[in-house]
Specification:
Beta-Lactamase; alpha+beta; single chain
Length: 120
């Protein structure tokens, strides 16, 4: 039987274009993940880089005195990578740009992040 977190992540992968969802600790570890297929990703490296990106965007917000980032969106030629702050952890979504609608991805992150944080 899957955990409540795994069920939420699996539901999120059903959104059009979503390739994978990760919960990453701010210390740089993958806590949970769900993917629509096989991923050829070094999860430890991914987690370390995600925390570095989040740290940089947080520091930028402090320097500009505009607050902490809610969702950091990175756009690559074929993919989106979104990072959502959930307090102690980060919710990370990888999506195929040709199949995904960015607004829908952002909506799903904002909707599901509190649910995930409550069951972690």
């Amino acid at each position: 039987m899957s955990s409540p977190v795994q069920r939420i992540l699996a539901d999120m992968t059903r959104s059009p274009g979503v390739v994978a969802i990760f919960i990453v600790s701010k210390e740089g570890f993958v806590i949970e993940k769900a993917a629509t297929g096989t991923l050829n990703i070094d999860e430890d490296a991914l987690a370390a880089m995600i925390t570095a990106v989040y740290g940089s965007t947080t520091q930028l917000g402090q320097e500009l005195e505009i607050g902490k980032p809610e969702i950091t969106t990175l756009e690559y030629p074929g993919h989106y990578l979104l990072v959502n702050d959930m307090g102690e952890n980060l919710l990370v979504m990888l999506a195929d740009r040709s199949k995904a609608v960015l607004g829908r991805l952002r909506y799903e992150l904002k909707k599901q992040a509190p649910r995930i944080a409550n069951v972690l």
